[in-house]
């Protein structure tokens, strides 16, 4: 064995021993197709990254059990950045230089994603992000794609619903984290298109534990008909509890960034009546039989909950779609060449995922519109469809 080959093997083994997990079925003898991932399986955003990691491992096992892709197994090389964008970039470099992956799915947060983008763009390796901010795909970068709806699309879906209910004057309370700042900006940019005016605009920090002062200002602003909270993490749950404690009764809209049972549990009874845009996955059992997504979301939900004993979340769904899009692109290209995979991703047409039905193009590396969102309401700790007519 050459010194170079020996060094690569040692580095690879060391990497796996540190913070990676490789999912590989020895039953398939052909050389594996290496797909990398960096998610936040632990740390402050583990409620997002943990279901992503579990979903990716589950899918890799399922794919390999069915014979792999192009007759070859998927080797999933998965790193945990613990919610640290600097670690994410370090692992991105490792995936390129040491692990020699052909594509990557991951990036739990916008911050981690933005830190990794230059690495994958420079290496010309397709990267499917699992984070929400529109800046990930706007402007379009040749090798960067994403699966979650953008924050702009979430704003548009919320404002569509508000307009349908005759709401014209609203308050806004936004997180100052990367997601919250981005969504606030996007909401302010499109709100006028719906004849709606923001007449109170407050914010809170990532570590704030009480938002009652900001909410009191909104409550005491004459004319408020609804409130929207761009944010994710624990902040929106605190906002929701404080909202109820202050006796605020105007409709409260949250972002798609809290579309999981974790938010309902954190907010408790105060979550009752909260509205938010979310993928069909959260109401899988309530979809009509002719819904194009029903079979996909039902199969994923059943498999995930059976494997983990935990309720499915939209964040795991983003990972499901990310790896699903990559596998479909590899099959379409008939190749594991990174450039061929990139071209096939960009040419995705009507790919049915759990988040929506993806159709991408040279100008659109997401491929989802407002129609792929469902406007939901939390009722008795569960999700129900609640879009305005």
UniProtKB/TrEMBL annotation:
<protein>
    <submittedName>
        <fullName>ABC transporter substrate-binding protein</fullName>
    </submittedName>
</protein>
<comment type="similarity">
    <text>Belongs to the leucine-binding protein family.</text>
</comment>
<keyword id="KW-0029">Amino-acid transport</keyword>
<feature type="signal peptide">
    <location>
        <begin position="1"/>
        <end position="29"/>
    </location>
</feature>
<dbReference type="InterPro" id="IPR006311">
    <property type="entry name" value="TAT_signal"/>
</dbReference>
<dbReference type="InterPro" id="IPR051010">
    <property type="entry name" value="BCAA_transport"/>
</dbReference>
<dbReference type="InterPro" id="IPR028081">
    <property type="entry name" value="Leu-bd"/>
</dbReference>
<dbReference type="GO" id="GO:0006865">
    <property type="term" value="P:amino acid transport"/>
</dbReference>
<dbReference type="InterPro" id="IPR000709">
    <property type="entry name" value="Leu_Ile_Val-bd"/>
</dbReference>
<feature type="domain" description="Leucine-binding protein">
    <location>
        <begin position="32"/>
        <end position="380"/>
    </location>
</feature>
<dbReference type="Pfam" id="PF13458">
    <property type="entry name" value="Peripla_BP_6"/>
</dbReference>
<keyword id="KW-0813">Transport</keyword>
<keyword id="KW-0732">Signal</keyword>
<dbReference type="InterPro" id="IPR028082">
    <property type="entry name" value="Peripla_BP_I"/>
</dbReference>
